[in-house]
Amino acid sequence: MKERKITGTHVFFGFLAAFGVIIAVNFALAYSAVKTFPGLEVKNSYVASQTFDDRRAAQQGLGWQVQATHGDGLLRLSIRDEQGRPVKAAQLHATVGRATHVREDSQPEFRFDGVSYVAPIELAEGNWNVRMRALSGNGTQFEQRVVLIKE
Question: pLDDT digit string (tens) for 36-86?
Fold first, then answer.
């Protein structure tokens, strides 16, 4: 039996193969990350920044606290004022989805039941975001992303 020796060529191709695998995996993960997450919060961040402080102050002036819960196939979005009373907004729009991709995003139809906004929706376990926009009675826009952990 002939004894095999490791030569410089073998070592070179070994390193080339190892780094080739690492680079291929990095490209695959980067492509997957870019493809599944839009990364877009606003269309033009400069324009949005010009009115950010004013919009934030107006929104904080409302004193609203928002909480999301899910159970028995119902998503409950509770909006309370500073005194803890339920708030009925003039308008409410919400998108429910995962934090990492938009594939499961949906826009449930909420109805106000006198205490909170309720919408029938089935959610799997895990981390969900409720990205809501509401309009107060005085015309103040209220926007918030509410994290919902479904166990």
Answer: 766 667 788 888 889 889 999 999 999 999 999 999 899 999 999 999 999
- Which tokens in the block code for residue 137? 């009675």
Helix, strand, or coil here: 82? coil
Rounded to the nearest 5°, which phi and psi values hold at 112?
-90, 125
Q: What is the pLDDT of residues 59-69, one digit of tens each?
A: 999 999 999 99
Report the side by side order of strands in the sheet with 141-150: 91-97, 126-135, 141-150
Question: Structure tokens of 69?
Answer: 């819960």
- Which token pair is 75? 């998503």
Which residue shows structure tokens 């906004």? Answer: 117
Rg (alpha carbons) of the chain, rounded to whole number: 25
* 85 and 114 Cβ atoms separated by less than 8 Å: no
- Flag whether pLDDT at 6 surpasses 70: yes
The span from the CA of 128 to the CA of 16, in Å, is: 42
Helices (H), the chain: 8-36, 45-50, 52-62
d(CA 64, CA 89): 11
